[in-house]
């Protein structure tokens, strides 16, 4: 189902990018299967109203103090052009916000989509990165990129390594820096040049989410306003046999971990995980991310083996 007025990509032929293609929009309540079908076909999809406005308000109130205390940009000399000198990124979110864990990290539709997209290639997936991407006034557009370039060797296998979700926590229109995307660039060879003028902004209302695979060309838009901030909350999930961008386990104290639901602990690196998708032979006994001969989840005696 597409939003009124939005074009459908369903009849389009060919698998590569074209000026006619747009990221499709489906309403919250759409099945994970349908969302994943569009995601894997086009490289990205928007789910409108994925999070309710009450949840958006909770997330803002949990995170605003941390955003206010943080200066924008990365530390001096560390890729500030790519990450944006006027962009504020706060990570370690599971330690900072209950709503982040309960309503976003574990969102059943999001995890349903991840199961379909990622479990064919791994025994389990985990969180790679989560953070605010608040783009301040005057920020230039980020270079178009594929997130999978972090893992450039397996990115050439032609499988999905990672799937990301960006929820709008506030303004997210083209003028303020909505994410620029080129649909259907996700199955091209990773080094293949693509005409950047094909990128279009994907505008979101508060609570809407864009979901995309790590091989899709995209980038943060330019914030052309003088006084508005583009407020996105980013999360990505990746195959468990790859090292995540964020060492999220290290930002959690054992006390905070003890309060987390089991699936959250698994996604945040407080559990060992199966490397292979095979479940019924010796391969399924092999675990990654262990401590000595034990599974991380049992390390302090609190958690069960998965
Ligand atoms: O801010 C955005 O819209 C995209 C951010 C992004 O792709 C990144 O920082 O890698």
From TrEMBL:
Query: What is the protein's name according to its record?
Result: Unannotated protein
| Annotated Gene3D superfamilies | q2cbj1_9rhob like domain (2.60.120.620)
* Database matches in InterPro entries: Phytyl_CoA_dOase-like (IPR008775)
Which intervals of the chain are annotated as region Disordered? Answer: 1-26
Q: Which organism is it from?
A: freshwater metagenome
């Amino acid at each position: 189902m597409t939003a009124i007025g939005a074009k459908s990509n369903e009849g389009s032929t060919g698998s590569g990018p074209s000026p006619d293609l747009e990221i499709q929009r489906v309403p919250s309540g759409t099945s994970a299967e349908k969302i994943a079908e569009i995601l894997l076909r086009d490289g990205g999809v928007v789910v409108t109203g994925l999070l309710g406005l009450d949840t958006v308000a909770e997330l803002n109130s949990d995170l605003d103090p941390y955003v206010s205390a943080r200066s924008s940009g990365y530390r001096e000399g560390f890729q500030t052009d790519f990450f944006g000198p006027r962009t504020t990124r706060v990570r370690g979110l599971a330690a900072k916000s209950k709503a982040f864990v309960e309503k976003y990290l574990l969102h059943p539709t999001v995890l349903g989509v991840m199961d379909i997209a990622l479990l064919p290639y791994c025994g389990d997936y985990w969180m790679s990165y989560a953070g605010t991407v608040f783009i301040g006034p005057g920020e230039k557009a980020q270079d178009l990129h594929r997130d999978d370039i972090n893992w450039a060797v397996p990115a050439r296998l032609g499988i999905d390594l990672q799937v990301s979700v960006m929820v709008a926590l506030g303004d997210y229109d083209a003028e303020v820096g909505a994410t620029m995307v080129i649909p259907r660039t996700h199955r091209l060879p990773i080094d293949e040049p693509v005409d950047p003028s094909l990128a279009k902004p994907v505008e979101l209302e508060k609570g809407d989410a864009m979901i995309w695979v790590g091989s899709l060309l995209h980038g943060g838009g330019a914030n052309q306003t003088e006084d508005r901030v583009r407020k996105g909350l980013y999360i990505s999930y990746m195959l468990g046999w790859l090292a995540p961008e964020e060492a999220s386990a290290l930002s959690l104290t054992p006390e905070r971990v003890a309060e987390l639901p089991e699936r959250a602990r698994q996604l945040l690196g407080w559990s060992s995980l199966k490397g292979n998708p095979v479940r019924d032979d010796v391969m399924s006994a092999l675990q990654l991310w262990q401590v000595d001969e034990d599974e991380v989840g049992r390390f302090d005696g609190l958690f069960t083996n998965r």
